[in-house]
Amino acid sequence: MNTQAKLTGADLRQSRQFIKVYQPPKIDGDFTGKHIISVEQFARQDLQILFDATASIRRRMKQNDRGLLQLGAGKVMATLFYEASTRTDMSFQAAMSHVGGQVITASNGVSFSSVYKGENLADTVRAVGCYADVIVLRHPEVGSSYEAAYYLDSLREQEVVRRPVIISGGDGVGEHPTQALLDTFTIYDLKGRIDGLDITLVGDLKNGRTVHSLAKLIARYEASGVKINLVAPDVLRMPQDVIDLMTAQGVQVYETDDLHDVLGTTDVIYWTRIQEERFATPEDYNAIKDRFIMTQPVLAQAKPDAILMHPLPRKHEMGTPEDHDALDADPRAVYFRQMENGMFVRMTLLAKVMGGLWV
Length: 359
Ligand code: NCD
What we know:
Helices cover 36% and strands 13% of the residues. It is built from twelve helices and nine strands. The protein has helices at 17-21, 44-62, 87-98, 121-129, 144-157, 177-191, 209-220, 240-248, 282-286, 296-299, 321-328, 335-353; strands at residues 76-81, 102-105, 134-139, 165-171, 198-202, 227-231, 252-256, 268-271, 307-309. The strands form two sheets. Strands 7-6-5-8-9 form a five-stranded parallel β-sheet, covered by helices on one side. Strands 2-1-3-4 form a four-stranded parallel β-sheet, with helices on both faces. Strand 3 (134-139), helix 5 and strand 4 (165-171) form a beta-alpha-beta unit. Helix 2 (44-62) crosses helix 6, helix 4 crosses helix 5 (144-157) and helix 6 (177-191) crosses helix 7 (209-220). The longest helix is centred in the first third of the chain and has 19 residues, at 44-62. The two termini are 26 Å apart. The mean pLDDT is 93.
């Protein structure tokens, strides 16, 4: 099963190294037993399968279909969150409950597990892999989910009873694949297509893993006639490798630091938080933090049928709490629907990787 190159000596314990040696499996129409660690695993047909199944799951949830509880019956999901989370953590837990599975988590949080004693990720993940069918991992190191997948594959070789899969809940400034899946589903759901759309990503495009994954996933979708506008100050530009990947797939990329260049013509506005925790100094953060603020008077200048998305949490990049209320009242603000879609997409993904869903 594990055909990956083996790591040796000095390479070990640097999560980033695992991106070079661990090739995540392509979905290729079949999700069963596959780790979900990068959007690079998905092609357009895989996304279509996921979108159709998610729409069906959402319908069944509305109908209170008890049959959903069979999808994950008898399965266990463990959460390993080394970084703060509300939505990713709780929506995965809720998703597993809604498909009839069980959730386990370190009783006092991961920082009071053996991680406190200095256990490394490779060992913690294999310990948890002995108890669970799925592990959702959020970790501050880029490449940590690749490292976890690598060691879980090695665990499979030791003939443990389960064949656990890892699902990344975000690895540092790297990727956040399930967020990109729910974001792309939301765009597809509300606009009826991805092809031909004008999509604008705004804010911290350097450190924001959600925008890295979303940009790459739109490229993977091989949509025709898509234009992506990247709106960021110079110091927070989208990494060049992500831009290259998009242009190589025929996406038209336009970079600017002026939102008004694109606001009146764009179909999808994806707003993001300036990632304070990733800045070297408070001064660096303070110099940039007020650069882009989305409020209702700004949104008023967008197309009447545009949608405003945000992965949340939000801070002052959407103004004061009063500004939030005004913005939320605009029907173009769809971030709470986006958030609910996250649970439906995760239900689908869990059921599929656990082999319980063939719609
Ligand atoms: C994002 C994250 O953690 O990357 N949140 C999320 O998962 N919905 C975005 C952020 O923290 O700004």
